[in-house]
Design brief:
heterodimer, A: alpha+beta, Beta Polymerase, domain 2, Cytochrome-c3 Hydrogenase, chain B, 5-stranded mixed beta sheet, B: about 290 residues, mainly alpha, Rossmann fold, 3-stranded parallel beta sheet, 9 helices, about 5% strand, binds iron/sulfur cluster
């Protein structure tokens, strides 16, 4: 099952420091250390960015561009004069930590060279930076808005852009009940809605250009004259629009396809239908406020999201004096929660992929049974089934309970009163293994699953890396890259588990990866049970002051291997007095979003009927895709 | 005339022996509502996190097929109920309104969760609509973030109760009978920000005001603001003490389309109020009778 052979190309190794030295030698005038307090990496002058990027990839071996995002440095309390900055995190697929490099541009005429020709994975991320921050990328193949619509007024993530319901720069806001009079945001707007029009709006010339410009930018249009000849059978080229309301698009996702007969000749994903302005809200929130918001990113795996975010902020906290890292028991509980979440996520992913293959909801019904068990445990521990809001900086919010009671009057359920450890032991040793074996038995050798899964939705090893795919998509294409192994965190180094890698790069390989990962998660969980026993009674947090923590100045990139792939949080804490409890920048590197970059590539040449299944095999969740 | 019960048994369809020679009396509304309430087909349509709990509600542990709701239809043409399960964004509200317009009447909307009811945790976001009721009429709100499956079931039962209370003879209860097809909800436009066609005038006036006199604060008619509970106790008492306006209603006016010529706006309003009161009285009487 595990094929870890590394292709023949030369493997570049060496520390990050070495790499930075080499980079500085190669570009002595254009690369300088980022010596701002709490920052790391290098700043590359913008005219050499593309060249340096190619050097970083080809010569230094950082073949995987994990994250690319923009930050708006404006006004007082921040480190230098006003500018926009692109931040890139590049990794080696052989493992190790990030090479961070940055490029700066001024705010009025923000332009930078695109790195998409170097790493295709930058495609959507640069479009996002263009959409939300207004940076133009020269050389980008298709620079247009991605989350908002064409025609939207302004670049909302810029610090001087204010939303219609703007109250104050930072939370906590002032009273909503001043002098006993409650008011709501709606009442402040003359329209009673969350809208804000430019003063010079001209309604006479108003037309909705969002659709037409999009089709044009994709180079799609219906040419009724154009007929394709297939050995005498003449077919029209068609444009088919799927979504955002489509029963199988896994949420409000949309695809525009150009098809020739049954064959897809071009596919463009369209998103933003669930763009809930996570990052703008996150920058108004305090650091602590953001934990429940991360629950709502990938809402299938809220525990995993919590983990990534608290790890990023803990990196920042560790720069200061008054902070204790999580206790051992807290780490054990975190990993317990995260691995259970991974099982939930993979069950859900396989179930919905089977929906797409035509096994409509029957497998899902069985998988959801196990999910409900796990959710019961989450509910008893964190108080909520889905949105757990469980982890805190330096620990978790509460220990796991001694017993699991019926917290709500569950219909259709016996009154519960279990010993938690017994419940967990039974679940981990019997129930879940049994149902994973069932999945394996009924599906792995199933003719339909094999016929539709094998060879469909192919993504080669090179492309998987180039397009910054993550998680099962990356490992299904033969890349042995799992953040838990490649850049270990928490207590993973001491746990015994394997990375699951398949080399075929098709839908079936991704299915096998998910199946294998559930078994590996079980292996981890089994090792956690004794650890839970002997740490019993230990504290789960040492930081009572974590609620009002002042986060030191600096930047941090925390990443975890979530069910869907590498989930990263890029957090910047600015130095001014007010903002020390608020992130200056809060960016989510969403695996669901970036994994969609190669969707067009995987679907082109395939049949229309497979497109939805390919989407299912990537496993996206829209809360994270659109944020 | 004497009623020969035996005659009633001679129908084209066989009547079971134990039911023969019986006469049962009910109202058309009850039979009709019984049928409708037990076959509310929701649209297979998920928006965000709440949709996951909606799916959980459909699975075996909670199982909303017990309420006749398991047939989730992917097409609006076959659905009776739109469960708005999640955050409504400005980009998404356009298709949602279109979908709603494509649903055949009678149709209902259930706002599931904090987001669909009022914007929820993401309310302040620049791309978020603060509640689907800004664009569509909502029948049931289910609070929660996300509501548990039990809460959603409770909301669905509340909807069934609402349907039970509707009478075919009251135009206000079931506007789709008697007055012809209702107007489609206006589809919003994506301009520099989202534009509700119903507010075009306001937007124009605001633009004019901004272009003309900068100093003078323009006065707006806040028609889109939902009423809040009275803020001021004194004011509330005053409103309560106000004598009810006596309205002379011409009872001879039959159920007609309100838009028919010859009725002044006041008369239409008075008639509407009268009908509403009648309906409420009947409802109260029925409830009293049922104990
Ligand atoms: S109410 Fe909460 S759970 Fe539901 S869509 Fe909104 S954020 Fe998600």
């Amino acid at each position: 099952m595990v094929d870890m052979t590394i292709p023949e190309e030369q493997v570049v190794t060496g520390t990050i420091e070495d790499a930075i030295d080499k980079l500085k030698q190669r570009f002595p005038k254009d690369v300088s250390d980022d010596d701002r307090q709490g920052y790391s990496g290098v700043i590359i002058s913008s005219d050499k960015l593309q060249e340096a990027a190619r050097y970083i990839k080809d010569e230094l071996g950082f073949d995987y561009l994990s994250n690319a995002t923009a930050v708006d440095y404006l006004g007082e309390g921040v480190h230098s004069e006003d500018h926009l900055e692109m931040v890139y995190h590049a990794f080696r697929t052989t493992g190790g930590s990030a090479l961070v490099f940055k490029a700066q541009t001024d705010r009025t005429n923000a332009t930078l060279p695109s790195v998409t020709p170097v790493w295709r994975g930058a495609d959507f991320q640069e479009r996002e930076a263009y959409d939300l921050m207004g940076i133009k990328f020269e050389g980008h193949p298709n620079l247009q808005r991605i989350l908002l619509w064409e025609g939207f007024n302004g670049y909302p993530l810029r610090k001087d852009w204010k939303e219609a319901y703007y109250e104050e720069d930072h939370k906590p806001f002032g009273s909503r009940w001043p002098a006993g009079h409650v008011h709501r945001a709606e009442e402040k707007s003359v329209f009673g809605k969350n809208v804000n029009y430019p003063a010079d709006i001209d309604l006479s010339r108003l037309n909705d250009v969002s659709e037409s410009t999009m089709y044009k930018a994709f180079g799609m249009g219906v040419d009724t004259e154009h007929v394709v000849d297939h050995n005498g059978v003449q077919t029209d080229q068609l444009i088919v629009n799927m979504g955002p309301h489509h029963p199988s698009t896994h949420g409000v996702f949309r695809m525009i396809m150009e098809i020739d007969g049954e064959t897809v000749t071009k596919l463009e994903p369209v998103m933003g239908y669930l763009h809930r302005n996570h990052e703008k809200i996150g920058e108004r929130n305090t650091f602590l406020h953001n934990i429940p918001f991360t629950d709502r990113l990938d809402y299938i795996s809220s525990m995993g999201n919590n983990h990534g975010y608290v790890m990023a902020v803990e990196q920042l906290l560790a720069l200061g004096a008054k902070y204790n890292p999580p206790t051992y028991r807290a780490e054990v509980i975190r990993v317990l929660m995260v691995e259970l979440t991974r099982i939930v996520n993979h069950l859900w992913a396989i179930g919905f992929w089977l929906n797409d293959l035509g096994a409509f909801f029957t497998p899902v019904l069985y998988f959801v049974q196990e999910r409900e068990r796990i959710l019961d445990f989450f509910e008893a521990t964190a108080g909520s089934r889905m949105m757990c809001n469980y982890m805190r900086f330096g620990g978790v919010f509460a220990d796991i309970p001694e017993r699991i009671h019926s917290v709500s009057n569950l219909i259709n359920d016996r009154v519960r009163d279990f010993d938690t450890m017994k419940f967990l032991t039974e679940m981990i040793n019997e129930r879940i293994p049994r149902s994973i074996d069932e999945v394996d038995e009924y599906l792995t050798q199933n003719d339909i699953v094999q016929a539709r899964g094998m060879g469909v939705g192919y993504l080669s090893r090179e492309n998987a890396i180039d397009y910054s795919a993550a998680g099962p998509v990356l490992r299904g294409s033969g890349v042995a890259y799992d953040v838990r192994k490649s850049d270990p965190y928490s207590i993973y180094p001491e746990l015994d588990f394997d990375m699951v890698v398949e080399t075929e790069g098709d839908m079936y390989a991704r299915y096998l990866v998910r199946l294998g990962e559930m078994r590996e998660s079980l292996r981890i969980l089994k090792q956690l049970l004794p650890r839970l026993e002997y740490t019993h009674g230990e504290s789960v947090t040492e930081n009572n002051s974590a609620y009002s923590s002042k986060v030191p100045i600096g930047e941090a990139y925390g990443r975890v291997e979530n069910g869907k792939g590498e989930l990263g949080f890029y957090v910047v804490s600015a130095g001014d007095k007010r903002a020390a409890a608020n992130p200056w920048r809060y960016h989510v590197r969403a695996p669901s979003f970036i994994n969609l970059t190669p969707l067009g590539l995987m679907s082109t040449g395939g049949k229309v009927a497979d497109v939805v299944a390919i989407l299912g095999s990537i496993d996206i969740v829209l809360g994270e895709t659109d944020r | 005339m004497e009623l020969n019960l035996q005659e009633l048994n001679k129908t084209e369809y066989p009547i079971p022996v134990e039911l023969q020679s019986n006469v049962a009396i009910t109202s058309l509304s009850s039979v009709y509502n019984w049928g409708r309430r037990n076959s509310m087909w929701p649209m297979l349509f998920g928006l965000a996190c709440c949709a996951i709990e909606m799916i959980a509600t459909a699975t075996s542990r909670f199982d909303f097929s017990r309420f006749g709701m398991e047939v989730m239809r992917a097409t609006p043409r076959q659905s009776d109920l739109m469960i708005v399960s999640g955050t409504v964004t400005k980009k998404m509200v356009v298709p949602i309104v279109r979908l709603y317009n494509q649903m055949p009447e009678p149709k209902y909307v259930l706002a599931m969760g904090a987001c669909a009811s009022g914007g929820g945790p993401f309310k302040e976001g620049y791309n978020v609509v603060s509640g689907i009721d800004k664009y569509l009429p909502v029948d049931v709100y289910v609070p929660g973030c996300p509501p548990t499956p039990q809460a959603l079931l409770y909301g669905l039962i509340a909807l069934q109760k609402k349907i039970d209370g509707q009478s075919l003879s009251v135009a206000d209860d079931v506007p789709w009978y008697g007055v012809g097809p209702s107007e489609p909800a206006p589809v919003p436009i994506l301009g520099p920000d989202i534009i509700d066609p119903r507010q075009m005038d306001m937007i124009r006036r605001q633009a004019e005001a901004a272009a003309n006199v900068k100093t003078e604060e323009p006065v707006y008619h806040l028609n889109a603001v939902r009423e809040l509970p009275a803020l001021d106790a004194e004011q509330a008492v005053a409103v309560a003490a106000r004598p009810k306006a006596s309205t002379a209603v011409d009872e001879s006016i039959e159920m007609k389309s309100f838009s028919q010529a010859g009725m002044s706006a006041d008369a239409i309003e008075a008639l509407r109020v009268k009908r509403r009161e009648n309906a409420l009285q009947r409802k109260a009487a029925r409830l009293a009778k049922e104990g």
